[in-house]
Amino acid sequence: MNTKKPVIPIRVWFSLTGICNNSCSWCYRSGSEIPVFLDVDVIKKAAETLRKAGTKRCTVIGGEPSLHKEYESIVNYLATEQNFMVSFITNGRVLARKFPSSWIGNKNIRAIVSLHGANSEHYLENTGRPKGFEEAISAIRVLNANGLTHAVNVVLGKENINHIIEFIELAKRENVKLTFTMGMPSIDDPNHEVNPATYTEAIRIINGYCKQKQQHHCFIFSLPWCAIEEELLDNLVEEGNLFFNCPVDKGLGIVIKEDGAITVCTHLSNMDIASSTEAESIFTDTSSFTEFWNSKKLSSLRETVSVYRSSECIECKYRFYCKGGCPLWWNKFDFRPIINCRRKKGEQNDCTT
Length: 353
Known about the structure:
Elements (H helix, E strand, L loop, with lengths): L10 E5 L24 H14 L3 E5 L9 H11 L3 E6 L2 H5 L11 E6 L5 H8 L4 H14 L4 E7 L7 H11 L2 E6 L13 H18 L3 E4 L9 H9 L3 E2 L9 E4 L5 E2 L12 H7 L3 H8 L2 H10 L13 H4 L4 H4 L5 H7 L11
Parallel strand pairs: 1-2, 1-9, 2-3, 3-4, 4-5, 5-6, 6-7, 7-8
Antiparallel strand pairs: 9-10
């Protein structure tokens, strides 16, 4: 008799659209995005089924989700009627022009403003939008003024790495929490340049300057954690400033794409595990979904992902958080030399990516 508890996602991502009003040079979607808007009925059916199954958190993304004409009511439905804890990821430009006032006072809603430049010129260079910076800052200020829980996210990459001090000073000035995510290898553009070595040095600088300025900050670090110098790594973990929240290997995350199809990760949006037609049947009720989510096909996928990238990872004290980092990085880089090196006492300073 099989008494194993079925796997249920703890978070669902709803991609409201593949359309965006920015043209960020580092965007990991440059071809796989779909220029349509996710049907509200699809959202409601999936949300209802997932909530009954036990999913408690959701993230609303795009593209730019605020371009969906019903984005405000969608978030209200998810946060109020379904009682999800909702994170709304936005560049803020639409919110600056028309703030979703119905969100005020709703503790289930959190907005994260993705800030794509440290000043007007930098924002224009990164996105091609001449007034984008001013609109993003306006959104941050209106969120502050209305007491809506929010934070600012900055993508670390070659486009932003030389402006990290400006970003920190801006966040301090605007009294907002600051999150740094690593610019990922693109699923659509194999020529997109990413350099892991620059991230580890940037984290040291950012952490030191944020402490000096008493600026609340954290890192979503998708690379092998041992790429960070050991003393700094221990400090970041101890203070709760370092995270890697890949849900794929444990089946803890599900993505509903803008066309209604299902995938397992926002960075794998070109790899459907169920079409929009199949998804209709899957979300018929909780038993149909649970059967699909615990099927042999998906269990096999998780087993493929749930492996240590190096034999040295098995003995690492952070193995359950990191497992060697996101598999997408390993498509472009071989981190085994640095992983092996970092695990050898006394050689940390000799290791480079």
